[in-house]
Amino acid sequence: MFDKNVALLSEPASGDAEKHVQILMVEDDYQDVQLLKALLSQQEYCLDAMTHAQSISEALDCLRSSGDSIELVILDLSLPDAQGLDAYHKICSSCSEVPIIIHSGNIDESIAIEAVQRGAQDYLVKGKFDGHLLGRTIRYALERHQQYLELQSEKLKLQAITAALQHSNQQLEVTNQALEQLATIDELTQIYNRRRFDEVLWAEWRRLAREDSPLSLIMCDVDHFKAYNDTYGHPAGDACLQQVAAAIANIVQRPADLVARYGGEEFAFILPNTDLKGATHIAKDIQAAVQRLNLPHLASSTGDQVTLSLGVASMIPHQDVSPVQLVEAADRALYTAKRLGRNQTQVSLPDLESAITEVRQASHKAKEFCQTLKHARSSLARSLEPAKQQRVPQLRW
Ligand code: GH3
Ligand code: MG
Prior knowledge:
Alpha-Beta Plaits; 397 residues; Sig_transdc_resp-reg_receiver; alpha/beta; diguanylate cyclase activity; 5-stranded parallel sheet; phosphoprotein
């Protein structure tokens, strides 16, 4: 169909071979049919390629039985079974892919405009055109229609490409999420890793500083784990860490709570909006969960099963203070638990913490004061230098 039309896109030189465009003429007036045929033959259209229907229903039958072979419809708007644009609508709705030229005795311009707006290729008024104009109208109709079909096909390709792109974007998003997830999960224990711990700690610290609400931290460490590895082997040590992680992972339930493998055989809990009392309570639950595992540890000097030591700290975050202070406080409490015999929870006392902070601040201020004193002394020495030199007796020879 397209190839045949391409030949029609340029003005035909005189003496061109007959043009085989499969045209369906829908016309009930015998004289008009003869006139159109005569005009078309002047333009060297092959009359054998014409089909004629006298009504809309005949035309629809013809379109149905012809498969896709009809390339153009020339349609009268005054037919026995349809009048005006209704005739156009009936043909158009059953073969939207075929260009339609209207051939009508109605000179009402508004109908012509509406027909073209609805997709008709052209509107020829009966008796107001010659063979040359008819030939050109057919050529342009086929050309425009071909361009329309090409555009449609490009549009479909574009839609397919867009859909494929959207699909791969979605896949990329899923992959990115999976990667992001992988980057925050500890491979051995399948709980959050240190990276995630740090992210959440800083984010919660900033959030709770605005809310003026407490943030608690529990640091847990498996007791005598080196001895466990030495006794049972490294793979058994790995399995032990997995069991401990699984046992403690579900103890905290609030959406903002987080449990992570802090490193080695150390685990950490971030508990937003939780005070020291609440965090201590959770620490006891953690300790009890590991006890319930009842994992034998014959090399432990603390007992005959795997145990944890825990350090708890709580602070109301402040934007001028780093959350590292909270980690250090929990670590100090954990160290105390280790020192006092392991398998226990120790709490970082706020009074003690503020005393430590005060001592640190005082020591910092003292250092600054010493520094200022030193500067003052050296500038005093510099300012006294000329006076000293004046007092040196001049030797005369
Ligand atoms: P303490 O009671 O004072 O905590 O003593 P500890 O032996 O538990 O502590 P130490 O720091 O001396 O030893 C920790 C051991 O944990 C040493 C290290 O090889 C082991 N460890 C750290 N990460 C892993 C791991 O992923 N798998 C295994 N199997 N062992 C680990
Ligand atoms: Mg340990």
